[in-house]
Write a structure and sequence with these properties.
single chain, 14 helices, 434 Repressor (Amino-terminal Domain), 3 domains, 335 residues, Rossmann fold
């Protein structure tokens, strides 16, 4: 059994520093990381976490801040997937995790985090204005956001390009010949809500299509999707681009109750590609944004930041993918 980093490096045919970066969640090419992990698994190597933390001066525990109520956090599949990705990535590196929820004020949560012995935090930055996020960025506390802060050049974050993804989905609907495409946004004070609305607007204006009165603000729930769709149906829409899959599910229900058909009368598209989207009737066309991958990447990015704090802010934009299903193309399944 290999017992030292030098022995592991020799077996994996890499340098000792590369093995160290893999063990500490640092930046390593995917192919090289896989080769090192294979060696670790085959040799049964288990790092001495206590010794590693003592040498680095770190506690070996990071915070995960999702300032949502437990009801939202544990019932919304988006947050469940995000949490799973973060947890899996930290467990792979034998890093402990402390979860902070929205059961305290943001000011109190910030104060407790800054006084804690945590090595750093991953924090969901859903809102355009957030005192907790702003306080973390103003401090020297290592933090990685899930959700962008493009205007702050000191911020490290992981996100997707919501504007371009929304533009692409709206363009898909335009390409199908839909001319009155309504949009049910998320709350406009959220990062995703504002950016996805901007993407819809950009595609519609580029195509010279009307937008006035064709956008309704929702809150990412089925109920808000139903209410907004009911209003937009009366305005003669022939397609709906919804801020997320749950909103789209509510919209499809409203369309059925109005005696209309999806997609024959009104095409419907969502965002997220959560597991239930493919099981809707008809299956939902949506934007796949890899929620679990975002959580995993955020954890890796924080560990890189801790390993190399002088490396500057890390800004990661993960790719999205249009998943075309029957809610926009009828019988032509393309996913």
């Amino acid at each position: 059994m290999a017992r030292t980093l030098e022995e592991l490096a020799e077996l994996a045919q890499v340098s000792r520093s590369t093995v160290s970066r893999v063990l500490n969640g640092g930046s390593v090419k995917a192919e090289t990381r896989a080769r090192v992990l294979t060696v670790l698994e085959s040799t049964g190597y288990r790092p001495n976490v206590a010794a590693r933390n003592l040498a680095s001066g770190r506690s070996g525990v990071v915070g995960v801040v999702m300032h949502e109520t437990p009801g939202v956090l544990f019932h919304d599949p988006y947050f469940s997937l995000l949490f799973r990705g973060i947890g899996d990535a930290l467990a792979d590196q034998a890093v402990g995790m402390m979860l902070w929820l929205g059961n305290r004020t943001k000011e109190e949560t910030l104060s407790r985090i800054l006084r804690s012995h945590l090595d750093g935090v991953v924090v969901t930055a859903n809102n355009l204005s957030d005192s907790l996020v702003d306080g973390l960025l103003a401090s020297n506390f290592p933090a990685v956001l899930i959700g962008h802060r493009r205007a702050d050049r000191t911020a490290s974050y992981v996100d997707v390009d919501h504007v371009s993804a929304a533009d692409a989905m709206t363009s898909h609907l335009i390409g199908l010949g839909r001319a009155r495409i309504g949009h049910i946004s998320g709350p406009r004070w959220t990062v995703a809500g504002e950016d996805r609305h901007a993407g819809w607007l950009r595609a519609m204006r580029r195509a010279g299509l009307p937008t006035k009165g064709l956008a309704e603000e929702g809150d990412y729930t089925e109920a808000s999707g139903y209410a907004a769709a009911a209003s937009l149906i009366g305005k003669g829409v022939d397609a709906l681009f919804c801020a997320n899959d749950r909103t789209a599910a509510g919209a499809m229900e409203a369309i059925r109750h109005a005696g209309r058909r999806v997609p024959d009368d009104i095409a419907v598209a969502g965002f997220d590609d959560l597991e239930f989207a493919a099981r809707l009737d008809p299956p939902l066309t949506t934007v796949r944004q890899g929620v679990e991958d975002q959580g995993r990447e955020a954890a890796h990015t924080l560990l890189q930041l801790l390993t190399d704090p002088a490396g500057g802010p890390r800004r990661v934009l993960l790719p999205t993918e249009l998943v075309i299903r029957q809610s926009t193309v009828g019988g032509g399944l393309a996913s």
